[in-house]
Design a protein that fits this description.
Blueprint (H helix, E strand, L loop, with lengths): L26 H28 L4 H21 L4 H26 L3 H21 L7 H26 L12 H31 L5 H31 L1
Amino acid sequence: MMRTSNPTLSPATFHQPIATGEQRMTIQGAVNKTALLLGLAVFSAVFAWGRCSENPGSAMPLILVGAIGGLLMAMITCFKKEWSPVTAPIYALLEGLVLGGVSALYNMQSHGIVLQAAMLTFGTLFAMLAAYRTGLIRATEKFKTGVIAATGGIFLLYMVSWILSLFHVNMGFMQGGGMLSIGISVFVVVIAALNLVLDFDVIEQGAKLGAPKYLEWYAGFSLLVTLVWLYLEILNLLMKLNSRRN
């Protein structure tokens, strides 16, 4: 049984009808598509970084365009998976605007923090992939249930925080460089990393089921969603740690 807390992946994701003679999804194909989407996101992020470095005032417009457009593309991709060969690359480019803009703003406050966050994100990706492939971490039912429950709790906490912020009420324990705030960030980073394991497992099972070829793009899109989350959480954690040193 396939289960993942990634909202773009579900047990039904790869149970799609396939026409006679149609090519089927492979692990290698999903890896290649993921790499291409990452490349597009990085390209777009570098562009946004350059614009924001020259004109810091352009950061928020770029972030808003990327966030709103990326959300729209993500929703379309989730509901129209067969469109993912087109919508997933567009999502990657839009999300890159968000990553580049946010990264530029963070780097202005703490020079070098973005490189650290990027290295830790890719390091975590390869470490979790190695742990999964070697069997060091297994996506058992108990493991899946625990990660899904924790991810749901994080989502609920963030939703409550966002709703309260609309009424100008801040959850102070989630902000700043306090030990509780840092502890929460560490926990979120760990859960985001463990979500990668669930994504790997679902993609592997999808390939075994012989899902349609276009779902390789959808798999890459889903992994990108998790990686973006992981990167932003690591960036936030590093900023909190840096604030304690200053």
